[in-house]
Each structure stands twice: as C-alpha cells, then as structure tokens.
Design brief:
17% strand; alpha/beta; 12 strands; globular
C-alpha cells in the first residue's frame, strides 16, 4: 500500500509541482525580459549605435545613388545642379541647387538645344555646366530655401524630391539641399558640431554666390530642425539677418524625445528608467549626440514658424508646443496678444509678435511626419515669409 501511494500520488500532491513549475516559468520569463531590456538599453547607448540610430545615414531604402543625374529622381533636365561644397573643416559635401520654376522657365531648354549649335546633342555634363552658370543670377532674383533634411536616406529621397518640385513651383523659390557629412556622397561621419558646420557651409555658399542673407529661408525637417536650430542660433549670435527659420516636425531635445519614445508605437523604451535613482542623469551623460533646440531659442532672433501634424507618430506634436512656448515666453513679453485661427478639418495657427519678430505655430490635423508636402503648410510658409508678394 505504501509503494502504491508513492507511485500514484493523489490529486493534491500532483498539483503542487505543476503550480510550482508555472511559477518558475513566469519568474524566469520576467527575469529574462528584464535582462533583455537592460541589454537593449546598453546596446543603444553604445556611441557607435547612437550614431547609426539617430542619423540612420546608411539607411537608403531606395538603394540607388546617381546624384550627378537629378533627372533620374524626377527633376527636369537642367533644373537641378549637382555640386560639391566644403565645410569649414574641409569636409566635402554633396548638394543640389534647384532653380525656382519661374527662373527655370527663362533658361535655355536642353532638349531644344537652345544653348548649343544647331544639330549638336548636348551632353549631360555640358547641360550641368551651362545651368551652374545661372546660379548667381537666380540667387539675386529669387529667394532661396536652404533645406536641411531629416535622418535616413539622402537629398535624393523620393519624399524630398517631391517636396523640392512642389516648393519651387508653389512658392517660386530656389532650393539648396545639402547632404550632411556621412550622408549620400558626402565625406566624413556625422556629429552635432559637424552637421552644424555643414549647414553653415550651405548658407555661406548662397551668400558668397550672390544671395542676400535676408533672401535665405532656413527650412529644417525632423532631425533637420535640430540642425536648423544650430545654424539659426549661430547666425543670431553673429547678428546676421536672414529671412527666417521653419521647423517642420521638430523635437525640443534628443533627451526629451527619448523619454517619450515608444517602440513599435506602444512600448515605452526609456520611460521605465526614470523610476531608477540617478538613471536619467546617467542617460543624459551617455548621450553622444545631444541635440537641444530648446536651449538655443534665446539666440534665434528671426521670424519663426513651427509646423507639426497632430497625427505624427514619429515625434509627438507636444515638442512643437514646448518650443513655441519657449519662443514667445510669458505673454507679458509679447507686443500683441496671442492670436489663434482655426480652420475646421485642417488645423490651427497661433501667432504672436515677440519684440520685432513674429513667432507662429501651425498644427494640422493630418499630414503625418512628412507634413511639408501639405499644400496648406506650404501656403503658410509663403505668406508668413513674404514669398507670395514677390
């Protein structure tokens, strides 16, 4: 009987090992998840991984790089000049200069051979050379946007070339689009100081070739808003009066963006660290690329437009609110009341005069992260910065 009981335990005896085993599995799974989370955080904090994650400069989903042939990306023959610039530390940068549509229509058309002898077939190089000769005239005649793109891809990214075509047509402006160091055919590796120098190289090129500073509008998108902030604040400290700065889908700082980042849109990646003593300080200390546009606000002296879509799943539109609040400061410092204009189904525009400049924020209901392609956003840029009065 004793042997039989030992070989055939009762129900209660059999349940204990099962429940104990389940507890062990749950505990091991929890420990495994915690360890995996710690490993992911430590991996992301490696300097090299930070660089590749923030800039994503080696990710090009189109996998095609023929910068010397802008026509391959849908731009008209002779409308875009492929060029090389040099930053202050002698880094070579790839760039495109795109003529405004009104100016481009005055140029000899390559297909009609109007700048070649009859019967000759112009080579691509000769078309590029002929077009480049018109850049100084275009800069003197038409305002120019210095376009600073976001991370991932290059100046030839499909979403960006569509934007160039739209802006040159709708606003009638030239565009200089640069690839920061490490992007596209630009040399070097991206750093905060480095990309700031690259933006300055683009601005200096425009001025040196005939543009008045007040005819240059700095436009940044996503990561490019941080670069635009670096350039705008530097020019502000130097007393340079440029046309203004547009920040599309900006983030206030990398540190704040990490706090609010959700993996796959639902899993908070860094927020749990805030509950660990001293961990936020350690995280800030370990950041290699500490973009912080919010801290640069006092040095940005020009007119400002901040634009953000409320359905942006990459960067929360609360970042734009933080920047706008920093720009206008206490309402007692403004020279007029904060005005609000809402268009149902489209969005809301806030405007305030701060000192001798205008600070505006546009929030659209739709548009996603790449809201620069929204016609209403382009119209707002044109009207606020006097591009429709030319």
């Amino acid at each position: 009987m004793i042997m039989k009981d030992a070989l055939n335990p009762g129900p209660e005896t059999r349940q204990r090992p099962a429940s104990g085993y389940a507890f062990v599995v749950v505990r091991r799974t929890a420990v495994g998840l915690v360890l995996a989370y710690v490993a992911v955080i430590m991996f992301l904090m490696l300097p090299m991984i930070q660089t590749y994650t923030i800039y994503a400069h080696h990710i090009d989903i189109w996998g095609y790089a023929k910068f010397e042939h802008p026509e391959h990306y849908g731009l008209a023959p002779g409308k875009t000049v492929n060029m090389k610039l040099r930053s202050s530390d002698n880094t070579t940068l790839g760039a495109w200069f795109i003529f405004s549509d009104p100016f481009y229509r005055t140029l000899p058309h390559p297909h009609l051979h109007t700048h070649h002898s009859a019967g000759l077939n112009p080579s691509h190089d000769s078309i590029q050379a002929a077009s480049s000769n018109f850049i100084p005239a275009a800069l003197k005649k038409t305002p120019t946007i210095l376009f600073l793109h976001g991370n991932t891809g290059t100046r030839a990214h499909k979403l960006r070339t569509v934007l160039y075509s739209s802006l040159t047509a709708r606003l009638g402006v030239n565009i200089l689009a640069i690839d920061y160091r490490g992007f596209g055919d630009s040399a070097g590796h991206p750093t905060v100081q480095g990309v700031g120098r690259d933006a300055r190289a683009g601005f200096d090129y425009l001025v040196q070739n005939g543009a008045k500073p007040e005819d240059v509008l700095i436009v940044g998108h996503s990561l490019g808003t941080a670069v635009a902030g670096l350039l705008a604040s530097e020019l502000g400290r130097e007393g340079v009066h440029y046309r203004g700065v547009v920040l599309m889908s900006p983030f206030s700082s990398i540190r704040t963006l990490l706090d609010q980042y959700y993996l796959l849109g639902c899993l908070p990646l860094f927020k749990p660290l805030a509950k660990i003593p001293l961990m936020p300080r350690v995280l800030s200390w370990s950041l290699k690329h500490g973009f912080d546009t919010l801290s640069l606000v006092p040095d940005i002296k020009s007119n400002v437009l901040i634009a953000h879509a409320e359905d942006d799943w990459d960067i929360p539109h609360s970042h734009s609110t933080s920047l706008f609040d920093a720009f206008i400061g206490p309402l007692s410092n403004t020279t007029s009341e904060l005005s609000t204009t809402r268009i149902t189904g489209y969005g809301t525009l806030w405007q305030a005069n701060v000192g001798n400049r205008k600070v505006s924020m546009l929030k659209t209901e739709r548009g996603g992260h790449d809201l620069g392609r929204v016609e209403g956003v382009q119209d707002t840029i044109g009207r606020l910065f006097g591009l429709y009065t030319l």
